[in-house]
Design a protein that fits this description.
Strand content: 15-25%
CATH class: Alpha Beta
Mean pLDDT: 92
Low-confidence stretches: none
CATH superfamily: Alpha/Beta hydrolase fold, catalytic domain
Order of helices and strands: EEEHEHEHEEHEHEHEHE
CATH topology: Rossmann fold
Largest sheet: 9 strands, mixed
């Protein structure tokens, strides 16, 4: 069996702006392509975040071409860290590039925290243009966004948040996600509470709750490294289901909630 190539740096064009990206290729011909988007750009998020890099690495090991990118304003990517409309365009540019590099195979989307929130915006009925994907993997889509620097600091340190209000628009976007949908979240996630996700996700979604993990899929306080032993199998299972489960087969199902140790 041939070795998988090392991740390769590439550049994307989003409008008139240049973005940095990284491409992870499988050992053979790709069976699908996956775009993975990172957490909040204004609070240290980037494509090399451990959760994002691990998701791309896992996808490539399963035979997918995985593309991750820095939103505008992050490190070398041109733009502003607080420009949501531009970040949605960045997402579209990354999806177009992934489709160009892996023609004729399914195109999937994934995002962690802010990246998942953007994904839900892009595939919702109000998006113009609406991004057409064959599968959606949302990692801890934040529904309670810290409103202050103090709360973001508390999140990173594993402390209680005092001013993180529920985001009604994000909940509406999650409820409108088209099939197929896989959502992974830690049982101790304070900004993407599993019960809140279960109450608002569409019936065709599958929600997997990883026991003992926080928003960063870390078993412990704060923004530690994700627990690969728990997150890895959950990612593999979710991607496998997205590739094996056509959207038409999910109509009429009840939402499935599973718990994983």
């Amino acid at each position: 069996m041939s070795a998988r190539p090392e991740p390769a740096p590439i550049s994307l064009v989003s409008g008139v702006r240049r973005l940095d990206a990284r491409l992870e290729r499988p050992a053979g011909a790709p069976r699908a392509a996956l775009v993975v988007a990172h957490p909040h750009p204004a609070h240290g998020g980037h494509m090399d975040h451990p959760v994002v890099a691990f998701a791309a690495e896992t996808a490539a090991a399963l035979g997918l071409l995985a593309l991750r990118f820095d939103f505008g304003g992050v490190r070398g990517s041109e733009g502003a860290v607080d420009d949501l409309p531009a970040h949605l365009d960045d997402w579209r540019a990354a999806a177009a590039e992934a489709a160009r590099r892996a023609p004729g195979v399914p195109l999937l989307g994934a995002g962690f925290s802010y990246g998942a929130r953007c994904l839900a915006w892009l595939v919702g009925p109000a998006a113009r243009p609406r991004l057409a994907l064959q599968g959606h993997l949302l990692l801890a889509p934040a529904t309670r966004v810290p409103a202050t620097r103090r709360d973001f600091g508390a999140l990173l340190l594993g402390r209680p948040l005092s001013e993180a209000a529920r985001d009604a628009q994000v909940l509406a976007n999650l409820a409108a996600l088209p099939p197929p949908v896989e959502v992974l979240v830690g049982s101790k996630d304070g900004v993407a509470p599993p019960a809140e996700l279960a109450a608002h996700l569409p019936a065709h979604a599958r929600l997997t709750v990883l026991d003992g993990l926080n928003h960063f899929f870390h078993r412990g306080p704060g923004a530690g490294a994700p627990e690969r032993a728990a997150l890895g199998p959950a990612l593999e299972a979710a991607l496998g289901r997205l590739l094996a489960d056509p959207p038409a087969d999910q109509e009429g199902r009840s939402m499935r909630v599973t718990r994983s140790q």
